[in-house]
Amino acid sequence: MKKLPFASGKISMLHIMIVMLSMVLTFSAWQFSKNQSESRIEQRFNASRDRIVGLIQDRMLKYEDALQAGVAAMESHEGNMTLDQWRVFATHLRIDEKYPGINGIGVIHFLSDQTLGAYLEQRRAERPGFEIFPPHEQDIYMPISFIEPEDINAAAVGLDVAHELNRRSAALASRDTGDAHISGPIVLVQDANATSGFLFYAPFYRGDLPGGAAERRERIIGVVYAPFVMRNLLGGLLAKDLRHTSISISDSGQKIYDEHSSVEERHDPAPMFTDTVNLDVYGRTWSLDIRSNLAFRNDNTYSQPTMILVGGLVIEALILSLLILMVRANRKAVAYADEVTKELRTEKQKLVRTNEELEQFAYAASHDLKTPIRGISGLTEMIKEDLEDYLSSPGANPEISMSLDLILDRVQRMNDLTTGIIEFSRIGVQAGDCGPLHLCELVASLTSDFKLKPHQIVLESPVNEICTDPVSLRRVIENLVGNSVKYHGSPDQLSIAITCRETPNSLEFSVKDNGPGIAPKFQRRIFEMFQTLRTGDAPESTGIGLAIVKKAIEVNGGQVRLESTPGNGTTFHFQWPKQAASLGPIEAGIAA
Amino acid sequence: MNILLVEDNDVDVLLFQRALRNAGTQSTVVRAKDGVEALEILNAQGADKQVLDPYVILLDINMPRMNGHEFLKELRASEDIPGSRVVVVTTSSDPKDIELAYGSYASGYVVKPSGTAEMTKVIDTLHNYWGVCEQPVRRCDQQTQ
Question: Which end of chain B is more exposed for a tag (fewer CB within 10 A), N or C?
Answer without folding.
Answer: C
